[in-house]
Amino acid sequence: MLKDIVSTHKSAFAPGASTELRAQRNLVRRVVMQNGNLVGNARSDTKGVSARVYKNGLYGFASAAELSEAAVKKALEKATYNAAFLDSHAGRGKGALPFIQSGVRPADEDMNDVPQKTYIDFLRAVDNYIQKKYPKLLSRSVVSACDSMEKLICTSDGYASHIIAPRGYVYTMLTAEGKDKAPVELYEVFGGRGTFDRSFSKPELLFDTIDRLHERLMHKAEGVHAEAGNKLCILGGILSGMLAHEAVGHTVEADLVLAGSVAQHLLNKPVASPLVSMVDFAHTALGETAPLPVYVDDEGVAAEDALLIQEGILRGYMVNREMGERLKMAPQGNARAYMFSDEPLIRMRNTTVMPGTSTLDDMISSVDDGYYLLNSGNGQADATGEFMFGITMGYEIKNGKLGRALKDTTVSGVAFDMLKTVDMVGDTVTWSSSGYCGKKQRMPVGMGGPALRCRITIGGR
Amino acid sequence: MRNPKDLAKLALRMLMEAGADEASAAATRSELNEFNADAGEFSLMRTTFDKSVSLVFIKDHKRGAVSLNDNSPEALKAAVEECVTSAQSGEPDEAWGLADVPQDKVFESGAEMNVDKLFSRTDELIRTIGKEYPKIMIDQLIVSHVHVKSAYANSHQVNYEGEDSFYGVSLACLAREGEKSSSFSGVGSMLYSLDRPFIELDGIRITLSDAQKQIDTMPADGKYEGTVVFTPGCLQEVLGALAGNYVGNSVILEGTSQWLNKLGQHVADARITLSSQPHHPDMVAGQRYTGEGFLAEDYDIIKDGVLENFMLSLYVANKTGHRHAPNDSFAAVMKNGDTPITDIIKSIDKGLLVGRFSGGAPGANGEFSGVAKNAFLIKNGQVTHAVSETMISGNLAGMLNNVRGISSEVFKDGGSVLPYLAVDGITISGK
User: What range defines the domain where residue B89 resides?
Assistant: First the structure.
């Protein structure tokens, strides 16, 4: 665990400024096996300190790649200098930030660190299973990707906190030959919050899901192109989570709101069907610990849930302390930085469409002609709310029953138009947390949602 | 604090003393200074002092790799032990290796930072945008200066030392009018000197003026096969996908590339020459040596339509019997054509000019579909209105055999030199 080298420097904080000091360590462990070859076997350990000083409406930031008293002093002095430089050249003459509640939040996790052999042996067992059971595959990849973030934060006001956030995942990617001889692929992700050894006790526990993955891959190998156009679709939970994050979440981050996102003029206006509510959960979601809980953010704000959409009405933005002051909204713990050398940005945490009352079976049986879309490879959205998701697994729905699988395709739309077409919301939330959200820096985020019945434009071919 | 050269040599010695058959060590020390403007106003001045050490240990054909940013003797000792343990945990594979041609070279590029000039150029850009492009809202402008000292040493008497210093400009913006706004637009450049105002860098003015025309959009009409003109910025994304799908490490190692057996054969229109040229005079801080210790050289991936090289690491090259890539960056250069882009557009009956592609990663078969962003409809040889909610789909490899034209103009952003590329036979579907 990190030794506290930051709190003793609080007395050196400049008066009249808001200051944050952070000591941080990031561990990454990655093993990649492709067709049985161990092509990646790497560990990284990155640590250092940073300081950020807010004065007269502008920030100065500095970091040093060392965990030492000298490094803290250097970062603090340089950050103070940078804030003064910017103030003298582009000063805004704004006052200090409003005080926030202070407190202490101790660590309650462990860093994600097991010997490399643990990952390799686990992947080898998974790979052997796939190779033996499915020898006709064109290729297979298994990857373990684990990261841990540890932060010690001291702020001029707010919470002093010690944060440890480990994640561990195993990816399996299978490729088979399609009926047209072209390769088709499909992947599955296992794991979540916590250290690898706690998430992955036995390789055998993955085998049933791998069998299902293979079964779906075989369906996809016989798959058809989706018919292009605006279709009635059931979006699975993975996709509705992506919608919550990409297409809605980003447009209601205050920095993007101030830059002119579509949400700028929509506060307290209808943006979705009354069946749709959306929340960015801080640490506890739907009665359980959220996939990637945040208790205190990097500005020392005690984290609370951010209500984004309530029964179809846009109710809030996600802010940091400075933008919260500008927009007259209380900060709720959304300011986070990825590495020690990164400044905190407004980031989502566990962004979710709230569950409704419909069962998935009822939703599928309600569709005469449409698609059930399960998985996505990637997704992007725009300031306008226009979004695109790559679809890697889906099925036709004909007369209320699942039909043929789909080849890879794309869905797109404008979030606040498409959400108004939602007329059934599933009763079960599916979460995902393995990815990184890309902004200026990357950041682990959780997202989730129930199945949604809606109209959406599908790419086809 | 040790300099990177001494650190790399020390780390290499420690790896060899730990019993390596082969080993390498790379070290960097860097300082970054950066100004940020958010929502059109200065917001942050940031300085980072960073360092890194990367170790590779190979023994009995087993390989381990560790990276860290702590160069204290205790941390290095622990990292070497971790690297050894990591290698021992793996399985032997004779394909692992490092560059084995002795080298001893020093590289330098760039100039010292002028922080006042960097600020004034940034301020000038913000003011110029405000005056000449009044509908533009800067979402985020990041200007930076990086100074990095680096060194590499491996057990085959390969030694490199480098010092690079360069500026970067990255602009994300949109255009607004009342309650309406355009999509995001982005443009960036790396450069050695602050002689020119940032507004004059390749791609900046056109990005700003196009964004202002993209506030009012309409979907393309119906579904049809048409011509798509990719801007140089969008072409860079397309080429990245192409590299991953057909010539990169994973697809060659897995054997799923559809170009697996096509070296020496035509895979594209004869006008296509695509290369990776870190030594191109318009590249900024281009790669000088590879991660495996080879002296970086320019090379063609496709020459006159013929597939010349895959983009392979030494490991995958050894594994598959192909040649490793002469550099492991992707400093993309596409040979320009001899027709101005306006003339290419005049030849198009129906199609799109696409500035950004928002799509799913193409499948292994190269099929792609996604939304045409920052895009305009082309009709009867004219660029008409901006489009939204318009999808394009096609096949990456097929596209290269369906070239309508390559522009004579190229954009140089310090990391690539690319023209406009017009391809026929793309499915365009609006509402």
Answer: 4-212
